[in-house]
Batch of 2 targets.
Target 1
Amino acid sequence: MTSKIHNGTLFSALILFASCCTQKTTPRPDTLDIVDFPTAYVPLPAKDFKFILPEVPKLEVCHSPRKDITEDFTSRDKSLIAVKDPKLFNENNTEIIDLSLIPANEYAFPLPNGNVISPYKGKRRHHSGVDIKTFANDTIVSAFDGIVRMAKPFAAYGNVIVVRHYNGLETVYSHNSKNLVKPGDRVLAGQAIALTGRTGRATTEHLHFETRINGVHFNPNIIFDMAKRKLHSKCLVCTQKGNNVIVKSVDILPHQKAGPYVPPSSL
Ligand SMILES: [Zn+2]
């Protein structure tokens, strides 16, 4: 009896030893069997795999608000080209104007069919606008919706019109043979505001066109593609430094473009 038990224990120990030896043998990778689990039995994770996708930016599409401007201009506002606008600029001295958000019916090239005959700055580097020409007494139109701030003869400008726009900009139209609007008039983009002339210091009938922000002029080419007579699809970042304003044109941020966010292909 004792011998039987002893023999049985020895037999079990041998099996256990053989089993351990088998488990310790690591198979070569190329001989691994691929176990084909039935997919129905594989438990799904509690969460889906969204966490491996790049996160959608939290930024929301910014719609340029129409600024609260009124026709209550002071006598100074009505008599000077360069005046400050107290409603512009935030605490960081920055103003963002997204041209891409201005629909086609809310802007107009100021002299339709006109060609540039003298650029901003120019050879003598003090030209404060661009000169655009068609013919005498052609119709000049407002570049954007806004309110006329100034309309009068003014020194070398001759008959001049300044329009303050809801987007924060001001535009200037000079050397006009005739002004068709007066301060306080609300005008729409494309609305006739003057006729081309050569009043003031001008040697030919043309439109001297300026773009300004907070009284400071900047290159109108930043706004308009002068050859195509179209608005650039860009974003203006305007920074106030003392009495000066730096206007930079930047590409529109991805989240500002229409349609769903598409992550860069490299991610
Ligand atoms: Zn000029």
Target 2
Amino acid sequence: MSRPYAPACDRNREPILTIIRDLLPATGKVLELGSGSGQHAAYFSAALPLLEWLPSDLPECLPGIEAWRDDAGENCLEPIAIDLLSRELELPIVDAIVCINTVHIMAWQGTVNLFAAARDALTDGGIIYLYGPYRYRDQPLAESNVRFDEWLKGRDPESGIREFEQVSVLAEKNGFELTADLPMPANNRSLCFMRRN
Ligand SMILES: C[S@@+](CC[C@H](N)C(=O)[O-])C[C@H]1O[C@@H](n2cnc3c(N)ncnc32)[C@H](O)[C@@H]1O
């Protein structure tokens, strides 16, 4: 099959890699949620060979992710189906979770499920890394993100750019502490939460 290709992955993979090199544990297993085309899984697994990288997405995305494994490190595992909107969501036990440009694509319930399931999937010190656009209560949304949010809601009224403060409260309720909130190119953010017992 021809491989799916998302141009944005070529633009954001290096800035994201710079950040996750510092935030993720040096060794262990990373679960990627909403892996999409599979380009990030291929690139990050090759760049971080001491980590096991487990890509996942909705079932229809798995063949595309699989097709990118030719470019991936041997540490890139076979992708698995995970629908964050499924009831009774359970995630595999891992050391870190990475979720790029997916929180704003799904209904808010998907993020609620993500944090609830991550509480069981991660042990003390485990990391959730989120990348994407966020809105902040005390700041106007950048014009490009206003337009992006309108576009998202036009496709799915339940999707949309999430509020940083709402995500932080959800994280705290589930036993996660915010450890990083960093600006990224094109009005995106890197958010990192750590599991605390
Ligand atoms: C904008 S794409 C981002 C893909 C990839 N992370 C990237 O940055 O290129 C959003 C991804 O979220 C996935 N997605 C949408 N709804 C989902 C759900 N309910 N559970 C898990 N993944 C979902 C889509 O299949 C898609 O791959």
